[in-house]
From TrEMBL:
Molecular function via GO: nucleoside triphosphate diphosphatase activity
Superkingdom, natural source: Bacteria
Protein name as catalogued: XTP/dITP diphosphohydrolase
Hydrolase in keyword set: yes
Segments forming domain NTP pyrophosphohydrolase MazG-like: 28-103
Taxon lineage: Bacteria, Bacillati, Actinomycetota, Actinomycetes, Candidatus Nanopelagicales
Length: 214
């Protein structure tokens, strides 16, 4: 049933994008759909957090639509086309490659080693040599900084940041502290997103400087 419905979605998407289909769908580009991909993802997260099962099913379908929509647009590229089959094949190959403990019977000690293996395989596949390679700079500043911190820790790079290790960190206390900093920024007419993004760029500069010295 799943395969037939997935194929049905391919056929529906193809009809919408083909001559005689929907003019709006035919006009869309990867760029014009970016906002919808973000919106649908956030709406799916909202459904998860409210335990809305019907909403999860609907919003996950909207996210899936974006994958199919982008893949159908990609088929029309004049020099480098690809289809939903290419997308699915690539991710299946990636999952097999990055799970040798499942598909190659590699023995691992636990989830920590699984994550280490995943990162090592990914770095090898993509030819990554820097801690910042592959970080999505267009993501919001908060997850961007979190990713930079994660990579710095993985690559053993020390960053020059204020330490709050003397204070007890809980989800509530961290949330209060973050909200206070955002309020402080607003009181001083500073955009906290831009301020944090500027700090992210400084952290990247520190990592790059450290790597040049290594």
């Amino acid at each position: 049933m799943a395969d037939s419905q997935l194929q049905r979605l391919v056929e529906v998407m193809d009809r919408l994008r083909s001559p005689g289909g929907c003019p709006w769908d035919a006009e869309q580009t990867h760029e014009s759909l970016i906002k919808y991909l973000l919106e649908e993802s956030y709406e799916f997260i909202d459904a998860i957090e409210t335990d809305d099962r019907a909403g999860m099913r609907e919003e996950l379908g909207d996210v899936l639509l974006q994958v199919y929509f982008h893949s159908r647009i990609a088929q029309d590229h004049p020099t480098d086309p690809f289809s939903i089959e290419d997308v699915a094949g690539a991710i299946a190959d990636k999952l097999i490659s990055r799970h040798p403990h499942v598909f190659e019977n590699l023995e691992v000690s636990g989830t920590d080693e699984i994550i280490e293996n995943w990162e090592a395989i990914k770095a090898r596949e993509k030819g990554r040599t820097s801690a910042i390679d592959g970080i999505a700079m267009s993501q919001p500043a908060l997850p961007l900084v979190a990713k930079i911190l994660y990579r710095a820790e993985k690559y053993n790079v020390d960053l020059d940041l204020n330490s709050y290790s003397s204070e007890k960190a809980t989800e509530k206390s961290v949330g209060v502290a973050l909200a206070s900093v955002i309020a402080w920024a607003h009181e001083n007419d500073i955009d906290p997103e831009n301020a944090l993004r500027a700090q992210a760029r400084e952290m990247i500069r520190q990592i790059q400087a450290s790597e040049k010295q290594a």
